[in-house]
Amino acid sequence: MTALFAFDDATCRHLAATHGTPCFAYSGAVAAEQFQSLRAVLPPRVRLAYAVKANPHPDLLARFAALGASFDCASIGELERVAALQLPSGRTFFAGPGKREEELRKALAMGVRVQAEGFEDLARLDALADRGVAVNLRVHPAFEVEEGDRIIGGSGPSAFGVDEEAVPALLQRAAGLRHVRIRGLHVFAASNQRDAAKLLAIHGAVLDLAKRLREAHGLAFEQIDLGGGLGIPYAPEETPLDLEAFGHGLSDLLAGHPWFTGELILEPGRFLAGPCGVYLARVVRLKDSRGTRFAILEGGINHLLRPLLTGQPFPVKAVGKGEGDLPYTLAGPLCTSLDRLGEARLPELAAGDLLAFGTTGAYGLNEGMTHFLSHPVPPEIWVD
Ligand SMILES: Cc1ncc(COP(=O)(O)O)c(C=O)c1O
Questions:
Q1: Does residue 324 sit in helix, strand or coil?
Q2: Residue 275 CB less than 6 A away from ligand 1
């Protein structure tokens, strides 16, 4: 079972004493275990592409690369980080609803497989290419999905991909392109889903969609990319994804679609990177305010934005103090009442106590929005 905290109390104390706080620490062993435990249950025809957006730390990327991972990128910053790994071609993918020309040029130069999210991606690639380029078409499906998290946005209007009903018109326009050929399908329709049956139902619907597109438009799919969305527990009562059931289910899906002889791609970010990370921050002071006990910490939403964005806190423990049942509101040091990392029941705290937030290896520091997706930070220009 996946532990909520990658490091025991003694290691947390040692890391805090050695490196200072606040800090993030990532366990290479836990990251490798997540990767290998998933890889072990997947049919050989499934390629595992780590979604770099979950955590682009270079050592984490290098560890996954050494284990045979491919990579899903969503910006030029992420492409550059993956380029530094010097992987053979075929191991990098590039998705994202707003790809700039400079990014597409980089993707072409790297031999990256682009997930085209609309006609503009296809046309821009076609104009940049001087030879045949295979791409995948990202489709925003019409089927209803049950998300574990507020990330994808359900089957309503979406900035991602081509709406399923708009695919025929797009294919007609794309028929006139000289270099670009659609050779794969990409659908990402789940988020933080820990129920294998629900994930498999979505993946089954994607294979059905691929079959319909193939029959209606003669598309020959070499690849079907099922996106990410594999969930992890964020609380002790949450059960982890049943990996055996998930792996067997994917084999059954492939067996049920004998027409598809290509490669399935999975792009998990959270599942592979989440459990390896711990965020360490000390209590600066305690305050009782009108019936609420605040623990004010060295870091807040400037380091962990996810609780504010999704309303879901990270698990937290008071290092070296065991269990406790006193209610605390965990506040950061920022001058905004939005700066909350959640509510927690902890032992009696004192200034200087060390708190550890678990499962912060994915969508932790890099979900701070200027870092997210490794997009370039905009310059600030002083005009006088
Ligand atoms: C295209 C794409 N692939 C993969 C992922 C990773 O998703 P997760 O971390 O839920 O597995 C995302 C997340 O937003 C995504 O947009």
A1: coil
A2: no
Q: Which atom of ligand 1 has the smallest separation from the CA of 192?
A: 10
Q: What is the pLDDT of residues 80-120, one digit of tens each?
A: 999 999 999 899 999 999 999 999 999 999 999 999 999 99
Question: Which atom number of ligand 1 is nearest to the Cα of residue 74?
Answer: 1
Radius of gyration in angstroms for the set of CA atoms belonging to the chain, rounded to a whole number:
22
Catalytic residue numbers, as ranges: 335
Q: Is 268 in the pocket of ligand 1 (CB under 6 A)?
A: yes
Contact (Cβ atoms closer than 8 angstroms) between residue 298 and residue 103: no
Helix, strand and coil percent figures for the chain, each rounded to 5: 35, 25, 45
The strand ranges marked E within 64-130 are: 70-73, 92-94, 113-116
3-state class (DSSP) for residue 252? helix
- Determine which helix (DSSP H) or strand (DSSP E) holds 76, and give its type and residue range: helix 76-83
For residue 179, report the distance from its CA to the centre of ligand 1, in Å. Answer: 28
Nearest CA to ligand 1 atom 7: 228
Fold classification of 27-273 is TIM Barrel (3.20.20)
What pLDDT score does 144 carry?
63
Instruction: Calculate how far, in angstroms, residue 158's C-alpha sits from the geometric centre of ligand 1.
Output: 15
Q: Is the CB of 72 within 6 Å of ligand 1?
A: yes
What does the pLDDT read at residue 150? 46
- Using CA atoms, how far residue 284 sits from 9, 161, 281, 295, in Å, is 19, 45, 9, 8
Confidence of residue 364 (pLDDT cuts 50, 70, 90): very high
Q: Is the C-beta atom of 71 inside 6 A of ligand 1?
A: no
Q: Using the mean position of ligand 1's atoms as its centre, give its distance from the Cα of residue 81 in Å.
A: 17
Write down the pTM of the prediction: 0.95
The Å distance, Cα 370 to ligand 1 centre, comes to: 18
For domain 275-367, the CATH architecture is Beta Barrel (2.40)
Question: Which segments of the chain belong to CATH 2.40.37.10?
Answer: 275-367
Residue found under tokens 């009108």 = 290
What residues pair up with 289 in beta bridges, in sequence order?
292
pLDDT at 153 exceeding the cut of 80 = no
Is 191 a pocket residue for ligand 1 (Cβ < 6 Å)? yes
CATH 3.20.20.10 in the chain, residue ranges? 27-273
**Mean pLDDT of all residues belonging to the chain:** 94
Residue 300: which of 342, 339, 328 has the closest Cα?
Answer: 339
